């Protein structure tokens, strides 16, 4: 048996195992698992240092999942409303989300797709074919986000089939794979799988690390295999109470990611998904973290902080207030240290690129107050 499959088998996969390992109330676990299953593979389980730590919170069921406000939607981003065929969400003009699997290496308690993930009924090869056929007959689609569940949990031959079908469509330019596997089950990133992916470039991978302790030697090896196969890797992190809502923790995470060739891409404000609201922070916390990163570490390490707007409005970036004032004469800016700087505007009556009267651009010193 392959190592990654053994790690899945040896992990915690039901409430009885939760009770035996951690003494968690079995009845509570059973009630939670009715809506969203339990899975913590043995590798990810080994990252837990103590009950209640940042790794534990992401994967161990909590009674607050049942106590959460039932007015919160099951589908907060209205993915089903923008779904012309099963498994496809077509929200943006030139790209689609294509859900190709219902399984994940771990079942994160904060999952946006609790309504679908871990439930196999919506997934089969016929529905996958419907999605591929929709993409084929919709020429404005140039970019595919292949997600799930987790695409990398599929067998190699299924990954090969999906990528081959998509790459054969002339108007598909870019394929992105969304996967928690490089972080949560890095042993699945085998040389064989990377060789399959290499055949279908341009392929990008967006993975999902939330805490510095997830950046392990095993994760580094998985990311190296993908990067060496020519795959650019980005990270989409979810901001969560008690997990990473600390500027020092997030700074350590993004710097470690760069060391393993993963570019921090997004920090998401946690979605309004039913059963997950106990993870949410105030929006100000995300802005505080961005202020603690920008200027204090490499620009490569600074992700976009975004809210995926409820109801399907799409991703909206949020930034701290760096522009203090702007008028026809100047822009007043505040830098990462809080210092004020004045940047001269081009006079509104002079088109951009026009030189000064003597044919020479005015020296910068002459423009400053």
* Model regions low in confidence, pLDDT < 50 over at least 5 residues: 356-369
Name the structural class: alpha/beta
Helix content: 25-40%
Number of domains: 3
CATH homologous superfamily of the largest domain?
Aldolase class I
Radius of gyration: 23 Å
- Sketch the major β-sheet: 9 strands, mixed
Overall number of strands: 12
- Topology as H/E string? HHHHHHEEHEHEHHEHEHEHEEEEEH
- End-to-end Cα distance: 72 Å
Count, helices: 14
Strand order in the largest sheet: 1-2-3-4-5-6-7-8-9
| Whole-number mean pLDDT | 91
Task: State the CATH architecture of the largest domain.
Answer: Alpha-Beta Barrel
Q: How would the global form be characterised?
A: globular
What is the CATH class of the largest domain?
Alpha Beta
Strand content: 15-25%
The name of the CATH topology of the largest domain is TIM Barrel
Can you describe what's shown?
This protein is an alpha/beta fold and 369 residues long. The chain folds into three domains: 65 residues, no CATH class; 231 residues, TIM Barrel, CATH 3.20.20.70; 45 residues, no CATH class. The chain has 14 helices and twelve strands. A nine-stranded mixed beta sheet has the order 1-2-3-4-5-6-7-8-9. Strands 10-11-12 form a three-stranded antiparallel beta sheet, with no helix packed on it. α8 packs parallel to α10. The radius of gyration is 23 Å and the shape is globular. The chain starts with a helix and ends with a helix.
